[in-house]
Write a structure and sequence with these properties.
Helices cover about 25% and strands about 30% of the residues. By secondary structure, the protein is an alpha+beta fold. Helix 3 links the parallel strand 5 and strand 6.
């Protein structure tokens, strides 16, 4: 696990496209970078090759807070279900804590993200077009960060 570097762009595009079976998510990653909304990007490597990627981007929050969006999360299809994705999520949450992020939001599989502490209950105070969906979950990184109503929006790249 390591931070992504500029030279990883092509490998990241390939991993994300393969993981999702389409290029939409890879374009989102590139567009988030272009709008300077990426807080951090992590890659998982095996034998010197990028096999996984996680994007953490800055959400707009009102009132102002440091809230991150987790995702897309991608692992090469033949290496999925081996723990690489979980390692990326844990490393991503750790990175957000080091960046003093207050909370993290994910729009993801309701059966996967709760193992990392994400919940719909934590997202209950968030106003978003995704509010109320089982896939819309949050994780407090600082005490009471999500105790009061908060409006959040993904970067424009997620459009």
């Amino acid at each position: 696990m390591r931070p992504a570097i500029e030279g990883d762009a092509a490998a990241i595009r390939a991993v994300v496209t393969a993981a999702f079976g389409r290029s939409l998510e890879a374009r989102i990653v590139e567009d988030v970078r272009a709008e300077a909304a990426a807080l951090a990007e992590l890659v998982a490597e095996a034998e010197g090759e990028v096999i996984g990627h996680l994007l953490l981007s800055r959400m707009t929050a009102r009132p102002a807070r440091v809230v991150a969006a987790l995702g897309p999360l991608a692992v090469r299809p033949e290496l999925q279900r081996l723990g690489h994705g979980g390692a990326l999520v844990r490393a991503g949450v750790d990175a957000l804590r080091l960046l003093d992020a207050e909370a993290c939001v994910v729009l993801g599989h309701p059966g996967y993200y709760p193992r990392f502490g994400f919940s719909t209950a934590a997202a209950a105070q968030l106003a978003s077009p995704y509010a109320g969906l089982p896939a819309f979950m949050a994780l407090e990184l600082q005490p009471d960060a999500l105790a009061h109503p908060l409006e959040v929006a993904y970067p424009a790249a997620f459009g």
